[in-house]
What we know:
By secondary structure, the protein is α+β, with helices and mostly antiparallel strands. The protein has seven helices and 18 strands.
Amino acid sequence: MKLVTFENGSSARVGVLDGDLVRDVTAVDDSLPTSLLGVVTAADGVLDRIRQATSAAPAVALGDVTVHAPLPTPTGDVIAVGKNYPDHAKEFADSGFDATEKEVLPSHPIIFGKSGSSIIGTAAPIVSGNDPTGTTDYEGELGVVIGREARSVDPANALDHVFGFTIINDVTARELQSMHAQWFVGKSPDTFCPMGPCIVTADEFGDVGSASLRTVVNGEVRQSYALADMIFDIPTVIATLSAVMTLRPGVVIATGTGPGVGIGFDPPRFLRPGDVVDVTVDGIGTLSNPVV
Ligand code: MG
């Protein structure tokens, strides 16, 4: 099931994507949560109730609604993994913007935060003016949504704690990332975390290892990589985090980007007003954002 947060005139609410339609499930069952955070944190059984409501739910054309980020306010800031693909780690090391690490390939997952206040939905503009250094870059990534509290979980059981998957563009102000050796500032300007267009439930998405991701800027393919190339896979990342912290339902993890970001080019190809960035993951859809 593909779940969206949408709005068409009244307040934002949960819908189910059905091709080019959105099924307005809360219109036929007003006991359903009205936010996807409410769905993710609800007791078991809520997905079955949404499924039951879908067939009778009124359909609205996707083109007639505003699709927000599926989780505009997730649980905490977005947790992100750095340098999690070998070829991206190499291009980052070669770019001169990596002020933090001596080693090219990390021996342990690199984890950083990305402010929840930077989240926007598909079609909303990335405001490049929020990066005063003019070095705004894209990073297409798979996003993981935690659905069941995770603490000290074994990698073998880690995927049992995943509610579903989304797409994240980990937009980055490269000069700020380099200046403030910790990455939080360079990763967190307002609008620098496009997320969406939907959350695909884990049962429908299936095997992460068989999916691929493409980032297209102004129609030109910049990134095209297999999610199977992650250095630290999703079970390892969840196990690593949950060894020391409680991952509560609604936590979002951006799992790292592959090669082909703007600083991988010589000279770097930063985003400029007028650009459009599309990130597509098989089985989820396309997250599309203009740059202003
Ligand atoms: Mg990233």
